[in-house]
Amino acid sequence: MTRVLVVWCPDWPATAVGVDAATAGAVVVQGQVAACTAAARAEGVRRGQRLRDAQRRCPELVVRERDLDAEGRLFETVVEAVAALTPRVEAVRPGLCAIPASGPARFYGGEEALRVLVQDTVVEAGHDCGSGVADGLFAAELAARAGQGGVVVPEGGAAAFLAPYPLSVLDRPELADLLRRLGIKTLGDFAALPSGHVAGRFGADGALAHRMARGEEPRPLAPVKGAEDLTVRGDFDPPAERSERVVFAAKRLAGELHETLAAGGFACVRLEVAAGFADGHVLRRLWRHDGLSALAVAERVRWQLSAHQPAGQVGDSEQVWGGVTWLELAPDQLVPDEGRQEGLWGRTSVTDRIARAADRVQALLGHHGITRPVLVGGRGPGERVVRVPVGDLPPAGLPEGPWPGRVTGPAPAVVLAAPPDAELVDADGEPVVVSARCEVSAPPAVLALRGRPAPITGWTGPWPADERWWDPGRSRRRARFQVTTDDGAAYLLAVEGGQWHIEAVYD
């Protein structure tokens, strides 16, 4: 097993959006709690909660939109501080970086001395952090979060260290919920299961989580040590003075690299980006590369360049200090490519013309400026679609069916992002109520939206959905109806907690 030191910054991405989590209650970013105080956690605020559930538990929440460019740019200061001690720094994601610990530990006098030195260096750079050393990246991240600033897990002791942790640390909520219902509550309980049975029952993702729970590498390493050099390089003459020129070149180089790897049946899981400047300085960074598209690689090159500015420099943020003379992308770790399914009869998912148009829009608006809908499992129409940036792979580990209580077709034409409240009454003007046994108090007669009543000409339902009843903090009970009104409109209604709202509109 590889000994890994992880640096974890608990205030990320709160720092990137300019919020002090120590005094502002909590920061909720795109539905996930990024940082919260002990008071907010005591109220039941947890990472991964729905925004409205978190706000209901803690009304003092401070909500900010996530700025990925700011996160990557600001985290470069942390990476640079660590790189001053050892050059092999891997930026796992903004807020988390890792280095191989064996060599630096021998140089600095042991793993504990290295851990303390790295932590002090990052704190001096102006960021609170924890640092931990363990076998593998997963155990090292938890070691960085443990104790008062992190711990060192003895070599070979990763499984014993992970055993008491809850299943939630696997970041697979559906798998964790299923295991808890089976009586498995900790990583130690999960690790004790036979590997073959886990793979047969929970599939490839479950087997991957099982390896992590046992303190093993998430995937067997499969480096390629051939004579062929897969590095791609681009030169700039004259030197590139603005980052846009370098970013577009990075996108082209990443496309060439992907084509070369695909021809050999490989995929890159870690990428080294090196930029050479006119003054002779070379800036190197390692980036985790699971499923990153060419556009995502270009985005990380932008982060790397934006952080390379002399102290106190102000002015054009797109200007590259000193000018870039060359750029290299080198695959640092290769694994066999599992492939992907193309369309029938040799058709690809999008034509070259559409891809070029999407690339131009993303160059103007940013990587997340244009997305495509991806169908996933879910009961409600709003839960069945996730938006993925064009060029990226769909998110892995999405839960699969069956979905009891799922609304049948046809699919609605418009799913409302903010469902408006509505009133549904019977012929006597009394509110329509759905009991705990899903019995309707009376046939719906009138639908009132924004104070405008519309007689109902047809209705069907209810479709009850009792979700996560075993988890009081995340459980939801609601029922859905389909109704048509005399003006020719058709709606999907939902009632939750006695309140009706319009969830979607049919064409």
UniProtKB/TrEMBL annotation:
Top-rank taxon: Bacteria
GO biological process: DNA repair
SUPFAM superfamilies reported for this sequence: DNA/RNA polymerases
Keywords (A to Z) from UniProt: DNA damage
InterPro entries recorded: DNA/RNA_pol_sf, Rev_trsase/Diguanyl_cyclase, SulA_CellDiv_inhibitor, UmuC
Residue ranges constituting the UmuC domain according to the UniProt record: 1-148
Assigned protein family: Belongs to the DNA polymerase type-Y family.
Entry function: Poorly processive, error-prone DNA polymerase involved in untargeted mutagenesis. Copies undamaged DNA at stalled replication forks, which arise in vivo from mismatched or misaligned primer ends. These misaligned primers can be extended by PolIV. Exhibits no 3'-5' exonuclease (proofreading) activity. May be involved in translesional synthesis, in conjunction with the beta clamp from PolIII.
Name listed for the protein in its UniProt record: DNA polymerase Y family protein
